[in-house]
Design a protein that fits this description.
Length: 66
């Protein structure tokens, strides 16, 4: 067993694994489901970006007033 297997995955590791995954064995329905799940994940990421951006803008506005 590799000692690195016990370490937590970095944020990019699951994405790298996903990109290397062989799509040939998947059916059309499985591919469509995968696309829907990926779209949901994209929406979740965009929502996080928007929230972080709003938070940052509010903090910038607060500190500019002083």
């Amino acid at each position: 067993m590799d000692m690195d297997e016990n370490l937590p995955l970095r944020g990019t590791e699951p994405l790298k694994q996903l990109l290397r995954e062989d799509l040939d064995p998947l059916s059309i329905d499985e591919l469509k489901e995968r696309i829907e799940q990926l779209k949901s994940e994209i929406a979740r990421c965009e929502s996080k970006i928007n929230a972080a951006s709003s938070h940052r803008n509010a903090a910038d506005a607060l500190f500019r007033k002083g």
